[in-house]
Amino acid sequence: RRADQLAILGAIIMADWIASGPHFPGVDRLADVSMDQARQRADDAWGTLGLRGGWSRQPYRPVRDLIRLRFGQESRPFQESTVALATTMPAPGLLIIEAPTGEGKTEAALAAAEILARRFGADGVFVGMPTQATSDPMFTRVHAWAQRIEPGTPVGLLHGKRRFNRQWRELLDQTRCNDVDTYGTGDDEYGLPSAGRGGNAAPEVPAEWFLGPKRGLLMPVTIGTIDQLLHAATRTRHVMLRHTGLAGRVVILDEVHAYDVYMTQFLTEALRWLADAGVPVILLSATLPPDTRMVLARAYLQGATQRTAVTVPPEMAEDTGYPVVRSLSPGEGQPRYAQLTAAPWRDPLTVAVDVLDEDPEDGSSPTGPSPVVTLLRRALSEGGCALVIRNTVGRAQQTYREIRASFGPDEVVLLHARLVVGARATRTEWALDRLGPPGHSGKPPRPRRLVVVATQLAEQSFDVDVDLLVTDLAPIDLLLQRVGRLHRHHRPPEARPAAVRAPAVVVTGMRQQPDAPPTFPRGSEYVYGRYPLLRAASLVIEATAPEAGSGWSVPDAVPALVRRGYDDAEPVPPSWRPAVDDARKRWHEQQKTREGKAEKFLLAGEKNLGRATLDGLHDIAMADLTNEDAVAAVVRDGPETVEVVLVRRDGDRGYLTLDGHHIDTAGAAVSVPEVAEAVAQSAVRLPPRPAVTTAAKDLLPLPECGDDPWLRRARVLVLDEARSAVLGGRRFTYDPDYGLLDETEAPDAAPRPRPGVFRNHPRSDSGGLVVN
Asked: What 8-state DSSP symbol labels residue 300?
């Protein structure tokens, strides 16, 4: 099969790189060449590098309660159903887990992965998450689980910001240094030094060789962003190494509802190759639209059969219960399909739904405090914790400013993607510690009153429990994901103030109009499209009608709401029909265009199913994708963005990190670990504006960054003493509380110095950096 050919090719490259390293000396006498000696030399090199596979190959032996054994908690009914289906699947296939947020999908998926691995001979897993922020907590959970299965199993984290994960850094500090070769390298595409820091490695630390460029997926147990898997579906150099790493694994993909039509083209291509290789795949979602489920199942069957025309069992599209676990196993003739439903672990919540009209552009009110501030003052007058989600950074910053003015700085926290990575990680950890699951020792007390203002960062794998949710309108599946933060964990009724004891979601980011559809902020339409917002608005307004009862029953109503939110035939108010018809037409045209844009980057595509060899895969190959920005530019359809590191100008004395570390005039201080870490913690992604992105590409790294490959290529934006800089015709200011602010100056504003740009690292006569 072609997938096997690709994986073998990657294994040959892996062997060639090992054989080309200094730890594998050549043989210069013909008389010394023998098969026995070759085996011994290979064995010696393997031991020197500390390489190993994943779990030992052992047959699966059913246990009474696998969830309790691995996670120390009693199985929930839905988790028992997942284990049962994994135990009875006749062949490697697709397992789709759909359950409410907080139901324990992760534990169910890991238990199923262990079963499938033992039954079908896999020795590890790859867990793909939608973002870097969701990958980090998953790394902690998977690492603990893997050690319970087999102590000493190496576990890797794979994304460009893994250096900021505290647990990963601690593990990396234990990695023994073996003078890793530089064969096949360039800059490390995941931002880690190629050499370890000495000392004896703990057994669960990945061998240092795996930390080299293009080798991350070769680690047997790996957690990373979904981009790592999508990259394996692109026609790029060294893609075969990714397939070598995925072969013999179980693949788990979380939050699969979160991928748009463009990314789904790469996901379906990856599923074809995984199915061709006989790799079991587990998909998780709380809100998976039926059409998406059918598309993913069809792709897996295509890969397994190597035929374009396949028949997906029609039951796959039906709403048959919730939670539900479905299995699809290819085989001779018709695929084997099975499903099990179970009662939810918790009793359903009746969530009241309301709409708060506000100005669609900035959320303000011309007559006084913003409607959101007024609502929160009333609802939290006796205390309570609320989450306010805005669809854009600008709206989140403005809302935070207004709430902070009313509540004070100690009762409001802001989370969004334009905080520097260090601040964002600190704030996220702080919020999770205080609003996360109750009960564990050392946990800080839940605040008497707190408002978290966030963007979509709070939508996925953000395990907080809030008393009240205020959220901008979003497509219905994503809106229901946000509702999953509401009354998420069990607490006694008296633990919540009376005003927020009953769960309620208040939808903002829309203004209702008589005899016309609502209007939405431009940013929301840009992010999600007008048609999905209109479909969601119809369901939200329906839930507020007196005849609708008390709102939504969650999770019972989730499958039907998601299906209706993506059903073109679903009725809308008659006065909306012309606008909805026009929006639907435009939406489907855009989706078709985006599908076509992705097709040219696919590794093979549907049209090449059934070929006997890899012939043709080298045609129209793309350039090597050497960093996450390059990968994202291919597998994520959207405006290009650039990440920069912020440093401050310190008068005539040089430069400072944002937190005040001095960067000396020769740049040598960047080689000091504390300074280097402070610089790296000041990374932030700029807004996706073409002029800004173009200008940012002219920014250069700090000089003399030592052996740190991430710092060697990180672009530096120098802020003036007011923490401001002009880039691409726009003024940006970094505020420690608000993050990066876009404060484009008015035409009559006084000019300020343009940002410093390090150009080829020349030095002045005094030894200082020349800044243009």
From this structure: H
